[in-house]
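Predict both folds.
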Amino acid sequence: MAAIGLMPTFASATAVGNDNSVGSATSFQRPNIIFIMCDDMGYGDLGCYGQQRIETPNLDRMAQQGMRFTQAYAGSPVSAPSRASFMTGQHTGHTHVRGNREYWRSALRPNAFGSNSDYILIGQEPYLNTHKIIPELMKQAGYTTGMFGKWAGGYYNMEYPNVYKLDANGNTDTSQSQVSSSASLPNVRGVDCYYGYICQFQAHTYYPNFLNRYDPEKYGDKHVVVDTLKQNILHKDVASGHKDYENREQYASDLIHRYALDWIDRQTANQPFMGIFTYTLPHAELWQPNDSLVAKYIDRFQGQDSPYGGNFGSWYYRNYSRHAQFAAMVSRLDAQVGEIFDKLKEKGLDENTLVIFTSDNGPHEEGGADPAWFNHDGMLKGTKRSTHEGGIRVPFIAKGPGVPAGSVNDHLLAFYDIMPTLMDYAGLDGAQYSKMASSEQQCYDGISFNATLTGNDSIQQKHDFLYWEFHETNMMALRMGDWKLVVKSGIPSLYNLATDIHEDHDLASQHPDIVTKMVDIICKEHTDSPLFKITLPK
């Protein structure tokens, strides 16, 4: 458990001011925040979480110098709803986006980029405009905001980049997607600077035809624009399966990371900032620059590796050493995290910046990935798309002012807790965006874990339960203390995580009273969604 009694200390201040309302002036310098959410990294993929085959020295050092959480949970077992849970402070029984609903499938245009076909309409189901998300709240509080990587909270139409159709409630009118962009894009949702993939489907390839940008400060952008990757489009795209794809050189992971570093370089000590770095590593495809990092793992795994033949319809390119590719991607991400810390130190911002690292869900098995080989101890059951522990329990590390160094904490938290936590940490009023202030008009499910984060476990409020649902696999889950109820197609199974972390022994028949109590909670927490149907337990 974390040490007791530490309080955050910020530049020019020793305590949080009395006026904690959003947007209020205070007498101290608010802390900067960088939230790094990587893509499809499993709980055991880092050295500090027990990984033995992949080197992650920077993240291991971050854990040694900060707090490592052992029971942190994503918002969902897949990308878009997990990110929505983070952004909105809601669990997936309440938040609007509960799945990877796409808006690109009918909009393929031939020869859109050089000789390459691509989708003119891209993106996912939009966040509700009538519910504030984290960058809006931080911007309202006076923070400069940047986001780099996946957006996954709305769609973009290249033919109508600055046209937003709204319904009667003031939200994006998705029926008008063919003639408009979503009003839930970074430029209209509190983000001052953005670079990355508006569409998470396009993030399946690391050598795309284009990325998206919104940067009024540097380029005078009035709305989200297309940044064509001019060297890439000289060569065949990944969907072709043609070997010429290997001649593409503009690697999106590096481009997004460099843009994020450049944005940090623009920040100053007298203006608080929040960066949301939704990096795409180590998501498939398992393809990257053929450099010394890849060569190291090819050599290390010699005789233990195997090729992957490719799935070009899903934009997963073939590779010849799938284990080496995945390991190199994790180590490449680790190096990027190290460069973020180096840049903060170079700018003199490291002493007043909270950095959090996590993953959007559990490990994937796509594009040739083999999580069982890397996590050979098999501690957690399930992978991405499962509400068993392996699909939703994620690495979560925090380092910054007030965070006890070298601490390991077993506090139960989920992504919907992050909104009130960051607000409290910044000296704002997180309670008004937490479960305590939730109403039918504005629903919130999170509880701030700022007390735990800053070493005050003795006063930390705890959840009675944590909740998940995912329509695509028709699964739900509820954690209540050590009890875990997993529902598959309406059938509940009960596990005691204290003695059965792998969820092997269904105790439902032995504890019908506990099952009844947990089923009642699920039925109360779930609100029906016409877009994301699920079978409730009986």
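Second protein follows, with its predicted structure tokens after the sequence.
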Amino acid sequence: MEKSSRLYVFLGVLVLVGVIFITRLFFLQIVDTSNYYKAQAYGSNDITIYPARGTIVDRFGRLMVYNDASYDLMVVPQKAKDFDKVALCKELLIDTVEFNKRLKKAAKYNPREASVIYKNLPFHVYTRLQEVLYQFPAFYIETKIDRRYNIDGAAHLLGYMGEVSEKELENDWYYKPGDIKGITGLEKSYEQYLRGVKGKKVVLVDKFSKQQGSFAGGKFDSLPSAGENIISSIDLDLQIYAEQLLANKIGSIVAIEPSTGEILCIVNSPNYDPNLLVGQQRNKNFSALLLDPSKPLFNRALKAPYPPGSTFKTVQALIGLQEGVLTPGTRYPCHGGYHMGSITVGCHAHGSPLDLENSIAKSCNAYYCYVYRSILDNPKYGSVQEAYVQWSKYLNSFGIGIKTGIDLPEESPGILKKPAYFERVFGKNWRSSNVVSMSIGQGEIGLTPLQMANVAAILANRGYYYTPHVVRSIGDKHFIPGEFKTKHYTMVNSMYFDSVIAGMAKVCIPGGTAGRTGIEGVDICGKTGTAQNPHGEDHSIFIAFAPRVNPKIAICVIVENGGFGADYAAPISNLLIERYLSPDRKLPSSKPDMQKRMLNANLTGKKLSASDSLKRANFIVK
């Protein structure tokens, strides 16, 4: 190539490079005036915009859970240099040791991203910081959503919120340090629906940490999407009334709509106000509740396996009928109980012998010892052990010994021992007489209040149940999980239920074991239970449904140390049935004396406060 040609090529390259540089400078200085380099001059913060969490209402639309604003102080650790630490600690009302610990934790998580350094700022601290925060460029305030509860009970049902753990931060991209989520109850079960989708806003800040508008005109911002609102199955009026009736007692109440499986109320006592676990006092109050010897955090309705006592006779009778070892006309004698050699299972005084219907109405223990042994000693099975396995399968079909699948966390399957357990206790060839106490719901069996209420729903439906659930619909589209629409049938044919229900219909009329607790005009089918308790007085238990035809409510009430089933559990149950079925709930109870006795009964020995007495008198909803 000639020398002149090479020169032209060289000059062409120089011109091209010059054009590129000039074009780039023009873009940086004239066109791109709002983006990267402006951000470098001013600085920027990514601010999370938290969505409104979904509200929770009762089945009639009455508000139970709503949102409230909370304020967190955020820090970008990498930028936290050359600031007056003592002055900031003074504003936050904490010492420098605690501050350094929080700052170190934030830096360890991610030095370049914002983390919470002070959660749930008290409002007076928040307002003061707004005035002085320009002195601390690495810090800014982020508004978040916290909860408020429109009822001072139902805590185990609704649940509470708490800060996400480190493990949850690793497993779910949605959360960042300092975020809160549902820890128990509905708040946990439906977290994915309630929490919504976060938004983001990128803002420019000057050297005084004051916001100077959006970065890139909001190009990188995103709007939040609110969480789904939830319509629960709870009847708030019934829930509050149940809590008032169970106040100053230990126990649980669960009521179900049999035709849908929807939970109408679910009550634990002792209970606590869910608003205690909100905001700045959350951790302090949780510690106090955790250390409370009365265990208010314990969810008895879902986790406590109680001996079902005589309520279990309804299930035993149905299995006996299906197995062909019992008929409605079968009679067994009772001479103060069941006697076999050294074995005695006592019974109260009543006429003898009784048929099936009256064995339910009078709750004869001897009758069901005979029934249970006839089931286990049935010659069609090769051994008692084989018969016991089949009997256990029957119980499983009633939701006993397994979880019901309720849409609340931490459900227990109750207690139903395997044959191997009895082999260890009684030897390889154990006999039906070794486990005869299970015939009347004692011994090696335990049902949760939820399971017992579900048994009542099965009886109401004559042989099937829907998975119990506390949510009717989710969001504007009224979505409901499909598993709540499926019928679960027991292994007992529906034709066998009539005799048992006929006996239950006699329980709450004169001559029945809860004859004084009936409600005039309401056809209640019930079964009392008195569960032996090695730690004190017997537990008072009652299951029921009403009305007999086209049942609207099935219920279980357990009052620990309450004595006979008719002493406390049956009156409370029947008052709730009356309230639920009443077309006008403002009308007084037809059993004012019974209601007064239940409301005023105090089985804990604790003195009632004035506010407790007021709420019990008026059934106040906030």
